[in-house]
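**User:**
Everyone, produce one record:

**Assistant:**
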Amino acid sequence: MQSEVVNNIHAYSLKSFHIETLIINSKFLKNNKLKDKPLKYNLVLKPKGFNAKKKYKCMVVLAGFTGTASKYFSYKPFQQNYPQTVDSWFAKNKINDCVILFVDAMTYWGGSQFINSPLVGDYEGYIVKELFTEFKTKYNISDNAKDTCITGGSSGGYGALHLGSKYPQLFGKVAAIAPDCDFKLSLLPELYKGLPLLEKMGGISAVKKEIKQERFFNRRDSHLIINIIAMAYCYSNNKRGEPKFPFNVSTGELDKKIWKEWLKKDPIQFLSNRKEKVEKLKGIYLDVGKYDQFNLQYGARKLNKILKAIKVPFKYTEFNGNHFDISKRREHAWEWFLK
């Protein structure tokens, strides 16, 4: 990964930022059940003319499922990548007092959901107690929570809602675009479609074998299958072996005990349960496409009602697009935070 980061850095230059790598050898991720390396390469956009005596605002960027820090920095012919888009927008708006951290939270199965998981690893601990602590010190980040925005789309939006609502003293503002939520309407349909396919393949062990032989991603349904596996690993509470799915594949009947545990990790539930902490946030920005392919617009509308009942400044918008238009909405979140 380090060579990949170096290659990306030399593929293009930015007008307003230097690209740096913040490497964390995480104690929280050591000996994780997936046997992922605890060494994480987090990328940083540091303003040119950085003043060591000045305090800076920051954005903490969480990637969507199968995305990670270095992926955002990959060179894209004929279009701007994420850092180039940031660079252009910041230069246009003459903003030079913000440092941007791109979090590396990639796992074997494509994502961590930025939570502590017995089967995946303690990603929440790694981000909050290791990465963000070192990042704040090294880049002179303001101690005022309102100057920090944690943001992301899809799974990244889920992570932003989770970490922001749990640690408002660190992440004062939250900007979530089409966040994973309302599992009954978004995740459960994916499970009903994907689990029979997974069973036909021979289970998780068969998927691992195909991944090693580089055949798996030739399948048209590869994203569906790996997504339900990853979510099961993240949301399952069992500490050994493979995750348990929340329904019987033969009958389709829900296992109420397992499903209840999964639902505790749904923003629909945890935002309501963390009302006192949510009220300490300085602001929440929630955005979703009206035609989201994963039904996330319905969950976002429910979150809108929940937030209306909580005393927290928030902005809710729906755009005329779908889940794959998330990248076009980032500038709206930046404007909300920085202006």
About this structure: The chain has two domains: 2-181+267-338, 183-263. Residues 183-201 form the longest helix (19 residues). The CA atoms of residues 173 and 283 lie 5 Å apart. The first strand starts at residue 17 and ends at 25.
